[in-house]
Specification:
Structural class: mainly alpha
Low-confidence stretches: none
Shape: rod-shaped
Helix content: over 70%
Number of strands: 0
Order of helices and strands: HH
Distance between the termini: 20 Å
């Protein structure tokens, strides 16, 4: 996984956490839900990138 992709996914997760906290604090369920969506999307992207890395490593080891 490239450094930029890792950074971008972690930033999205952090942004989601902040939105969730702001939504809870202000009592805005829509902002909280949007934050949850952002956090989960960032995590899913990170898992996808890790799967790509695993496939690349498996191909390298077969050579």
């Amino acid at each position: 996984m490239g450094f930029f992709d890792k950074f971008k996914n972690k930033a999205q997760k952090a942004k989601g956490r902040q939105k969730e906290a702001a939504g809870r604090k202000s009592g805005d369920p829509y902002l909280e839900a949007e934050g949850t969506k952002d956090r989960l999307a960032g995590g899913a992207k990170q898992v996808g990138e890790q799967a790509k890395d695993a496939v690349k490593e498996a191909r390298k080891s077969q050579r």
